[in-house]
């Protein structure tokens, strides 16, 4: 069990960059997808495919109990390719559902499976406006209106599920705005940019360091400070990996 890792959302942009890092580090990697036609692609990359929908709580629990991973890594999102503006209004609601209901199901399944750790993807631009840079103790903007409010409250729910699960050592990585291969953005953009491969490397370090708590993960001179991730994870924005699923 100690070397088994289950990655929910392994075919997403960060999950795809994370898989080869985990494999190279010697972990047995199980990866979830909702699409059966992605199974062969995962197998070819060295990942054990698990075809399951995070909203099917019973099937998810059964899969994780069978696998019994030591750690569950949550990289699930429901966002359109390239963050297509024409589809983002609907995506905000769908993504908030994954962060709340999906995370709740994933935490329950991990506990049933006897997992000891969960690492989850969050975002670094959900802070309540105030003087910058924001650190991890800064409050989230949960009273925001409209789409931002929906998104931030989804983030708050995700973090609560992960960090308050008594039997799990929970880690939340608040990622900046992702760019790089597969993201639809070739160059840094936004208030706290982050290369996708540096994001993946942070998840690997969180696993290896057996960290707990919340970490901002973004480039230097961003709207958020990455000092805690540098200090406790040994992470750097310059971290990169070469292979992808």
From TrEMBL:
Molecular functions (GO terms): aldehyde dehydrogenase (NAD+) activity
Signal peptide annotation: none
GO CC annotation terms, alphabetical: cytoplasm
Pfam families assigned to the protein according to its UniProt record, in alphabetical order: Epimerase
InterPro entries registered for this protein in UniProt: Epimerase_deHydtase (IPR001509), NAD(P)-bd_dom_sf (IPR036291), NAD(P)-dependent_oxidoreduct (IPR051783)
Domain (NAD-dependent epimerase/dehydratase) ranges: 5-194
Keywords of this entry: Membrane, Transmembrane, Transmembrane helix
TM regions (residue ranges): 6-30
This protein's name: NAD-dependent epimerase/dehydratase
């Amino acid at each position: 069990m100690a070397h088994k890792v289950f990655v929910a959302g392994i075919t997403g942009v960060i999950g795809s960059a994370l898989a080869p890092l985990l494999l190279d580090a010697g972990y047995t990697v199980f990866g979830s997808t909702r699409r059966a036609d992605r199974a062969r692609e995962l197998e070819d990359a060295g990942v054990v495919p698990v075809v399951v929908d995070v909203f099917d709580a019973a099937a998810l629990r059964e899969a994780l109990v069978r696998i019994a991973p030591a750690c569950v890594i949550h990289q699930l999102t429901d966002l359109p390719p390239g963050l297509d503006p024409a589809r983002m209004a609907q995506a905000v609601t769908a993504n908030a559902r994954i962060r709340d209901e999906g995370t709740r199901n994933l935490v329950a399944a991990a506990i049933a499976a006897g997992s000891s750790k969960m690492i989850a993807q969050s975002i670094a631009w959900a802070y309540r406006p105030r003087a910058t840079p924001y650190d991890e103790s800064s409050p989230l903007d949960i009273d925001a209106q409209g789409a931002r409010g929906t998104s931030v409250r989804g983030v708050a729910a995700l973090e609560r599920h992960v960090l308050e699960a008594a039997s799990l050592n929970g880690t939340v990585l608040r990622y900046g705005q992702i760019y790089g291969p597969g993201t639809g953005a070739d160059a840094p953009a936004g208030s706290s940019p982050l290369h996708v491969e540096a994001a993946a490397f942070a998840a690997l370090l969180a696993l290896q360091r057996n960290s707990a708590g919340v970490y901002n993960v973004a480039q230097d001179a961003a709207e958020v400070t990455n000092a805690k991730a540098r200090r406790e994870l040994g992470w750097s924005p310059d971290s990169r990996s070469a292979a992808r699923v």
